[in-house]
Design a protein that fits this description.
This protein is mainly beta and 235 residues long. It has two domains: 24-110, 2-Layer Sandwich (Copper Amine Oxidase, Chain A, domain 1), CATH 3.30.457; 119-234, Intracellular proteinase inhibitor BsuPI (Immunoglobulin-like, Sandwich). Helix content is 14%, strand content 45%. It has three helices and 21 strands. The chain has helices at residues 2-16, 42-49, 100-110; strands spanning 23-25, 32-34, 37-41, 52-56, 61-66, 69-73, 79-80, 83-84, 90-92, 95-98, 120-127, 130-131, 136-145, 151-155, 161-167, 170-174, 186-190, 195-203, 211-219, 225-226, 230-234. Strands 12, 15, 16, 19, 20 and 21 form a six-stranded mixed β-sheet that branches. The protein has a four-stranded mixed β-sheet with strand order 1-11-13-18, with helices on one face. A hairpin with a 2-residue loop joins strand 15 and strand 16 (170-174). The chain starts with a helix and ends with a strand.
Length: 235
């Protein structure tokens, strides 16, 4: 009995030591691919932090402002304030895209002084967002480390993520329902700028009624990371 009690106390103690990961869930990250590098939408990132933007077509420079801070970003340059970037910022259409390492640098510079600096970006996207009952849609989940340090993702089982479908606030489907996962503690170290991608095929129940639904979910770490919400139309 004493051994069981000691074991239980040990488990509670270890659980209490789990360090929450600071994450930003962003519907507007909008990743694109350029020269084999996955880049994210700069303005979409800035919207989460209240950044202001300006662009000089003459100087070909993007200006970003926040909390009295100002930075100048030059698309096409592999240099930024003494940093050597893995990929240069690019302008595609009317949007500027940057790689995750630069995203982390900008967050730390423009949001310095904040108590908690985000370590991860998470994103959930779905294609298509309109479908018939019985058809399938595809969810794309992304996790990006924008910190300067390695981030440990700790899972209580073999389950990495979960997805939920809601209508009028009521859950009508859950990805993990009926699935079984290995009962083992799993730790995944994510280095600075490193990304994790998951693709999930979602078969829609043929009995779903037409209407608007909300798809969301979480990364199933010990301290779950919530994913953004996406509206799905069933017709």
């Amino acid at each position: 009995m004493k051994r069981i009690l000691i074991l239980m106390i040990g488990i509670i103690f270890l659980t209490s030591l789990a360090t929450p990961v600071n994450a930003v869930t962003n519907l507007n990250i909008d990743f694109t691919t350029s020269d084999d590098n996955q880049l994210l939408n700069l303005r979409g990132l800035g919207e989460d932090f209240g950044w202001k933007f300006d662009y000089s077509p003459v100087e070909k420079t993007v200006y970003i402002f926040n909390q009295g801070q100002k930075v100048e970003l030059q698309p096409g340059s592999l240099q930024f304030e003494g940093y050597n970037l893995p990929a240069a910022p690019v302008i595609i259409g009317d949007r500027t895209y940057i790689e995750p390492e630069l995203a982390g640098i900008l967050v730390r510079k423009l949001n310095q002084g904040e108590e908690e600096m985000p370590e991860l970006l998470t994103e959930l996207k779905v294609k298509p967002q309109k479908a018939h009952p019985g058809e399938s849609i595809t969810a794309y989940i992304k996790i990006v480390n924008i910190s300067e340090n390695e981030v440990a993702l700790k899972y209580a089982s073999g389950q990495i993520y979960d997805l939920y479908l809601f209508r009028d606030g009521q859950e009508v489907w859950r990805w993990s329902q009926g699935k079984y996962f290995t009962m083992a503690l799993i730790k995944r170290d994510l280095g600075p700028g490193e990304k994790l991608d998951y693709t999930v095929e979602i078969p829609l129940n043929p009995d779903l009624e037409p209407g608007k639904y909300i798809l969301t979910g979480e990364i199933a770490t010990e301290n779950p990371l919530k994913l953004n919400e996406i509206e799905i139309e069933i017709y």
